[in-house]
Q: What sequence folds into this?
């Protein structure tokens, strides 16, 4: 309770008690607090001629990085006998070092400087206005003045390193990349042999086959390796990946999206991002600039509150080229199955990275004799869903968030590769 | 802030002393020790940096109001109430100073004590005037006056909330 309301309530109580008991001695006790409030408020209407400026050493950082903030408050008016300055940034980010509030008396033109360090947490926000209170000396006024500083801070998600995502979409693009394109051309992996044609370089003659057939030389063919169009879809639907209260599962989804986008862009693919539920769309592109765009979109992603995206029925296929690779990051609902299978039927190669919500929530639930049974039932239901997806041609990656994403992705994709490729690997 | 700390302890003693004296003179010396205990407790919570100052303040004022019903001299009660108000204010200042960065401490403390001094002097003067000037009022006129005060407080509070 603020000091003002405490004192006014006390005055009320004393006056009423004095009246109730017809005792003047009790009513006299109301005089000091009444004067305290009255004298303070007489000077409380004085307006503050104060200017606040907040400067950050970096406006874009990675999650967990430290940001140094310098807040300067300049008194541009008369002498202020008491000013309270409070920077509400401390409510948003953990403060590592320094003070975010000050109590001061400021002479005309005097500058108050607060310096502190905060640790970034994923998000893209305009920092809240600085709160200033002053004008009267006893500090009773409940009125805080907000001083806008127009400072923005972008904290990009921190993500684990994923070495490679070995996807095999049906359609590849024209540039050289890591995906075997199922057609002969310039590459490194053996594809087959064909009859020698004039112009073939001599060092590509398949001597063993040629030796078996007199007068008919053969040429070795290599498999083309190409890049692909890949669309990453992060599910931000309501109640999706956020039911544990602290949104930690959603954060895992964001990190997974960032890690996969980074790995795919490193391999040279053309990657786009859709935040399903928010409607944010990052147009496909290549390289480091695209990675920055995707990370920025992920930094500002929040669980959606829109009911319009309750199901996957509104999934915008027009954003993704036909027969391209889709990478869907979601903890999955039973009703998503139909849409995912429909996408597969349209010719998309669909890979679902699904953070396991059951194990995650079970950790946070209180002990209950039926909990074990409930978890088992939910797990069976989920495994059946994943199995049906696999049977439909979708590759589901069941990811318990305590496991290393790189290992989970690599081992699942290895299991789903054609035998020829697995043999080649070993 | 050492000077404020000293003022705080002095004001606590100044709060307990008149209350104890007043109770003793009215023949209720046992009840007077409630104020001594409250002062001691308050001092301890301040030393341990707990935030119970408002609880102690309200308890103190409640005990003073109860002492008023025991026909303890109103002058003693007024003096104790003023001292307790000062203790509460200084305790808050000490707490704020401990939590925030202090700039121009000397100027800040001087201005604060000056403002507090004004409250103390005016409270004692007005309180003394209230106690000395005696006029006979019927219950309904006293009730009306109290109602006016309450309405004035109400409108003041509404204005502050609106702002």
A:
């Amino acid at each position: 309770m603020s000091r003002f309301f405490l004192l006014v309530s006390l005055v009320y109580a004393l006056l009423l008690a004095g009246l109730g008991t017809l005792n003047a001695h009790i009513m006299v006790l109301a005089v000091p607090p009444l004067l305290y409030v009255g004298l303070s408020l007489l000077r409380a209407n004085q307006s503050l001629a104060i200017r606040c400026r907040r400067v950050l050493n970096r406006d874009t950082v990675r999650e967990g990085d430290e940001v140094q903030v310098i807040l300067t408050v300049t008194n541009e008016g008369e002498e202020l006998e008491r000013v309270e300055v409070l920077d509400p940034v401390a409510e948003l980010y953990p403060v590592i070092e320094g003070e975010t509030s000050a109590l001061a008396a400021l002479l005309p033109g005097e500058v108050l400087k607060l310096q502190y360090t905060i640790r970034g947490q994923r998000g893209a926000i305009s920092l809240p206005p600085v709160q200033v209170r002053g004008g009267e000396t006893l500090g009773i006024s409940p009125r805080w003045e907000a001083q806008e500083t127009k400072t923005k801070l972008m904290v990009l998600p921190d993500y684990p390193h994923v070495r490679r995502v070995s996807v095999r979409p049906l359609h590849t693009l024209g540039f050289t990349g890591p995906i075997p394109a199922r057609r002969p051309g310039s590459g490194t992996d053996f594809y087959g042999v064909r009859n020698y044609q004039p112009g073939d370089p001599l060092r590509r003659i398949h001597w063993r086959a040629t030796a078996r057939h007199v007068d008919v030389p053969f040429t070795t063919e290599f498999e083309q390796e190409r890049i692909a169009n890949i669309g990453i879809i992060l599910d931000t639907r309501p109640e999706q990946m956020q039911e544990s209260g602290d949104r930690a599962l959603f954060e895992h989804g964001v990190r997974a999206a960032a890690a996969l986008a980074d790995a795919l862009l490193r391999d040279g693919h053309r990657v786009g991002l859709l935040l399903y539920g928010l409607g944010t769309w990052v147009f496909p592109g290549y390289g480091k600039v695209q990675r920055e765009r995707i990370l920025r979109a992920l930094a500002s992603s929040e669980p959606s509150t829109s009911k319009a995206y309750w199901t996957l029925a509104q999934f915008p296929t027009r954003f993704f080229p036909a027969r391209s690779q889709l990478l869907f990051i979601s903890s999955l609902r039973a009703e998503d199955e139909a849409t995912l299978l429909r996408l597969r039927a349209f010719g998309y190669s669909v890979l679902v990275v699904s953070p396991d919500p059951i194990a995650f929530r079970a950790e946070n639930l209180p002990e209950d004799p039926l909990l074990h049974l409930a978890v088992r039932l939910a797990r069976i239901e989920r495994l059946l869903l994943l199995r049906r997806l696999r049977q439909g041609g979708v590759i589901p990656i069941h990811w318990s968030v305590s496991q290393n994403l790189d290992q989970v992705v690599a081992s699942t994709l290895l299991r789903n590769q054609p035998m020829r490729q697995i043999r080649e690997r070993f | 802030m050492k000077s404020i700390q000293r003022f705080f302890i002095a004001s606590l003693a100044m709060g307990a002393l008149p209350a104890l004296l007043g109770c003793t003179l009215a023949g209720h010396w046992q009840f007077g020790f409630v104020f001594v205990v409250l002062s001691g407790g308050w001092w301890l919570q301040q030393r341990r940096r707990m935030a119970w100052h408002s609880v102690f303040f309200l308890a103190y004022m409640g005990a003073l109001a109860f002492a008023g019903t025991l026909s303890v001299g109103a002058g003693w009660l007024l003096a104790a109430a003023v001292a307790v108000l000062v203790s509460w204010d200084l305790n808050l200042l000490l707490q704020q100073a401990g939590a925030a960065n202090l700039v121009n401490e000397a100027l800040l403390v001087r201005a604060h004590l000056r403002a507090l001094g004004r409250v103390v002097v005016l409270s004692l003067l007005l309180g003394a005037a209230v106690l000395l000037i005696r006029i006979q009022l019927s219950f309904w006129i006293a009730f009306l006056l109290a109602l006016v005060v309450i309405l004035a407080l109400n409108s003041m509070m509404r204005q502050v909330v609106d702002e």
User: Anything to note?
Assistant: DSSP finds twelve helices and 19 strands in chain A. Residues 229-425 of chain A form a domain with the Rossmann fold fold (CATH 3.40.50.410).
